[in-house]
Amino acid sequence: MFNQTALFGAALGIAEPVYIERIDFDAVQGELHIYMNFRSGVRFACPKCGRKETPLHDTVDKTWRHLNFFQFKCYIHMRTPRTECPECGVLLMTPPWARSGSGFTMLFELLVLTLAKSMPVSDIAKLTGEHDTRLWRIIHSYVDSAYGKKDMCGVKAVGVDETSVRKGHRYISVFADMDMREVLYCTPGKDASAIGRFKDELARHGGNAENVSELSMDMSPAFISGASEHLPRAEVTFDKFHVVKLLNEALDKVRRAEQKINPLLTRSRYIWLKNPGNLTAKQRQKLATLSRENLRTAKVYQMKLTFQDIYATIKDSTNAEIAIKKWLSWAIRSRLEPVKEFARMLKAHLAGVLRHFSSKLTAGTSEGINSHIQQIKARGKGFKNIRNFISMIYLEMAGLAIPDFPVAHSR
Ligand SMILES: [Zn+2]
């Protein structure tokens, strides 16, 4: 006959002397309760030092939430032994299905971690009937432990970028390994001291600021001063992604000003900011119509396309310098203040802008990391809690050794 008890036992990774005493099904509550026990007279090893046959001190009744069994919530109960080791004292045994100190089975926790990579935690809370604070506790616990073990000894090329926690709200600085395309560190704030905190974190993970020879970032004065103070050996690159972003901001300022006198421009923001290749047929049509008008916005748009062409077609810094200087004189003559402001910024930081053409940093890395973070932010519908936001970035992007679901129990 079908042995239900043995089936559950195998699924939970339990073995003698622990056994399933009984399984109760509560049809009214829709709950399944599995009661574990251990053979009487058995002595367990000390959970800390491993000393065999440690005397039993007492037992404590514990409950763990396990994966649902079909639509039914499933709980495991056990009178859990506490050993009394002459060396380590009285300690609670951790059964094979649990992580020490957690009220969930490991399988349940790994399911939460797996789901968290593709759905909002608030939805997992609804799905499992658990409060999201408890689910966040699971996520923080695994991420903190795996992040603590992250090895950063080979880090040489670093990118730093800022991102808002919620739209227009507080910021965090995100540091990434440009070679591995992994997030290394996130910290609240976007000031010079953020780079100092990164330097300290790097050291805690076996890395060394002296070995950081390439740094990719935007032209923010705070990052520039932080870099010269904390990462003095790093050659700075103002990468394409950040430079073009700044030009897009100038373009948008021109459009906003012009929209006030020309209603044609209403709701055209994304048409100018997107690359022509990414426009829908309808947007392309609108762009063609707008281009026939004698608009300042259209003029700056042409300047942007020309500027992006420099990145797309020129492969060395000598020719890039010639092309950018030519572009700069065009921009200065534009008589449009946002564009002139961008040009002055570019001129003041020209060496770092040109380094893009000689450094080995992959231009797409900053952009890729940024867009992944935007996805995480969108899924979380903006994060109220900075710690939750950072944990989620680490979970998905820091290359952490968090076991994938499902795993075999190793203990
Ligand atoms: Zn011990």
Note down, in words, how this protein is organized.
By secondary structure, the protein is α/β, with parallel strands linked by helices. Among the domains are: 4-145, no CATH class; 240-357, no CATH class. Helices cover 45% and strands 19% of the residues. The protein has helices at 4-12, 106-116, 121-128, 132-148, 192-204, 221-230, 240-259, 269-273, 281-292, 296-313, 317-332, 337-348, 350-354, 363-379, 386-397; strands at 18-26, 31-38, 56-69, 72-85, 89-92, 157-164, 171-177, 182-188, 214-217, 235-238. Strands 1, 2, 3, 4 and 5 form a five-stranded mixed beta sheet that branches. A five-stranded mixed beta sheet has the order 8-7-6-9-10, sandwiched between helices. Helix 5 packs parallel to helix 6, helix 7 runs antiparallel to helix 12 (337-348) and helix 11 (317-332) packs antiparallel against helix 12. It is elongated, with a radius of gyration of 29 Å. The chain starts with a helix and ends in a 14-residue tail after the last helix. The model is unreliable at 404-411 (pLDDT under 50). It binds zinc ion (ZN). Residues 46, 48-49, 51, 85, 87-88 line the site of zinc ion.
Summary tags:
disordered C terminus, 5-stranded mixed β-sheet, 15 helices, 19% strand, 411 residues, alpha/beta, binds zinc ion
